[in-house]
Amino acid sequence: MKRATFFSTLIFSVLAYAAGAQTFGDGLVINEFMASNDSLSGIVDPNGQTEDWIEFYNNGNSTLNLEGFFLSDKPDNPQKWSFPAGASIEPDGYLIVWCDEDGSQPELHANFKLSKDGEFIILSNPFGEVLDSLTFGPQETNVAAARRPNGTGNFVMQSPTFGYNNDEATAVVERLSGRWKLAPNPVSTLLSLNWQGDDRPQLRSIEVINYAGQLVKRLSVSAEIDTHDLLPGMYLLRLNTEKGFFVERFVKY
Fold first, then answer.
1. What's the rounded Cα separation, in Å, for the pair 106 and 87?
2. What is the DSSP secondary structure assignment for residue 200, as one 8-state letter?
3. CB 94 within 8 A of CB 164
4. pLDDT on residue 241
5. Which of 107, 104, 83, 96 is nearest to 233 (CA)?
6. What pLDDT, on a 0 to 100 scale, did the predictor assign at position 27?
7. pTM value?
8. 3-state DSSP call for residue 238?
């Protein structure tokens, strides 16, 4: 059934393209990426590993079925990795692909890694048409390259926003001597939030993100977070402050 749906989508796309419509997948862009990620970023994959990642954003007005779309780090091999069945992205939505050469893990994992020293990324549709591509130079650890304005602009270096609007991040990453502590972790119901260090930054918003980079829920600013309605699994808590974004991991059981 999934295969039939995929080919039906392709047939419809061919007809639309022949009628003068936009390129199949037009509006899908590489929106943000991090080629050097360590534990200080707080961004980890479902196995708790700090891997390279690429974020995609859908500028379009409809959900895109990404089965058969391609992603690569080699200009001479643009079809190096293909999105699997079931992969999709909603309008004004975000999607994360982990670049770690480990397709056995949950979520989306490409069969290549990103080089901290710089390289190439290319995204193309099932017809081989290039939707987006870029070449980047040496990267700083835990600093993301992100489009500003979000979804359309040029790439700038900033604090990572991982599944969120790039315009909300600080353009220059500010180093702080502290971090947010979540307890208990793993958590069953109530999760306490405490700052460990000097100069506690003021919280502006709190969001729960799943490991596909999708927003699960927005929360009011509070020292306690109610997780009773979350399904068991690993999540990222994104804390927006006047000093920029902080990302912490927690497990719901």
1. 12
2. P
3. yes
4. 82
5. 107
6. 93
7. 0.70
8. strand
CATH 3.40.50.2300 applies to domain 178-252: no
Give dist(CA 33, CA 86) in Å, integer.
22
Q: How far apart, in whole angstroms, are the C-alpha atoms of residue 74 and residue 112?
A: 10
Place of tokens 């020293």: 117
Domain 23-168 has CATH 1.20.1250.20: no
Q: How far apart are CA 87 and CA 134, in angstroms?
A: 22
For the beta carbon of residue 40, count every other beta carbon within 10 angstroms: 11
Domain boundaries for CATH 2.60.40.1260 within the chain? 23-168
| Token representation of residue 220 | 């009011």
d(CA 68, CA 38): 31
Residue segments in the chain with a per-residue pLDDT below the cut of 70 = 1-22, 170-177, 244
- For residue 147, the model assigns a pLDDT of 94
